[in-house]
Amino acid sequence: MDAVGFDKHDHSACIDDMIAVAEAYCVANKLQFTPTRRRVLEFLLEDHRALGAYDILERLVEEGHGSQPPVAYRALDFLVKHGFVHKIERLNAYIACAHPHEKHSPAFMICRLCGSVAEASTPAKKLLDQAAKDVGFNIECTIVEAEGLCPKCTTEGASV
Amino acid sequence: MDAVGFDKHDHSACIDDMIAVAEAYCVANKLQFTPTRRRVLEFLLEDHRALGAYDILERLVEEGHGSQPPVAYRALDFLVKHGFVHKIERLNAYIACAHPHEKHSPAFMICRLCGSVAEASTPAKKLLDQAAKDVGFNIECTIVEAEGLCPKCTTEGASV
DNA sequence: AGTTGAATGTAATAGTATTACATATCAGTA
DNA sequence: TACTGATATGTAATACTATTACATTCAACT
Question: CA-to-C1' distance for B44 and C23, Å?
Answer without folding.
Answer: 29
